Amino acid sequence: MEIIISNSSDVPIYEQIKEQIKMKIISNELKANELLPSIRALARDLRCSVITTKNAYEDLVKEGYVKTIPSKGFYVAQINMNIAYEEQLNKIENLLDKVVNIAKVNNVSRKTINEILDILYEEDE
Questions:
Q1: Together in a domain, 68 and 113
Q2: Are residues 77 and 36 in contact, defined by beta-carbon separation less than 8 angstroms?
Q3: Model-level pTM?
Q4: Which domain holds residue 93?
Q5: What is the mean pLDDT of residues 77-88?
Q6: Are 100 and 58 part of one and the same domain?
Q7: Given a cut of 80, is residue 57 above it in pLDDT?
Q8: Does residue 47 fall inside a structural domain?
Q9: At what angle do helices 50-62 and 39-46 cross, to 10 degrees?
Q10: In this predicted model, what pLDDT tens digit does every residue of 93-122 receive, in sequence order?
Q11: Are 90 and 70 members of one domain?
Q12: Are 74 and 36 in contact (CB under 8 A)?
C-alpha cells in the first residue's frame, strides 16, 4: 500500500496516513474486508513511529473505515458510500468557503476563481 508522507506539511503524520488510507477505501482501491498492514509493518514501511500508525488506525476505526479483529489485525470495514461521499462533500465545501473568503478579502472575482478551478480540475483528467 503506497502512502506518501510529507515531513514539511503542517498536517500531522498520523493524519496524513489516515486520510490517504481513507481515500483508498472511498475510491475502492482498498476493498471491504481486505487485510491492512500491521501497525509495525506500516510503521517500518513509512519509517515512522508505531505510535503514529497506531493513532491513524485508531482514528480509522472510530470513523468506521476500518475494523479490528483481535489477534488477526485491521481490516477495511464495509462502509456506506453515501455517508463517505457526504463527508467528502463537506470537506470540499469547507475548503471552498475558505477560498471564497480569501477571494473576497482580496477582491478576486468569481470568474477568476472559476477559471482557476477549471484549470486545476482539468489537470487531473
A1: no
A2: no
A3: 0.74
A4: 81-123
A5: 84
A6: no
A7: yes
A8: yes
A9: 120
A10: 999 999 999 999 999 999 999 999 999 988
A11: no
A12: yes
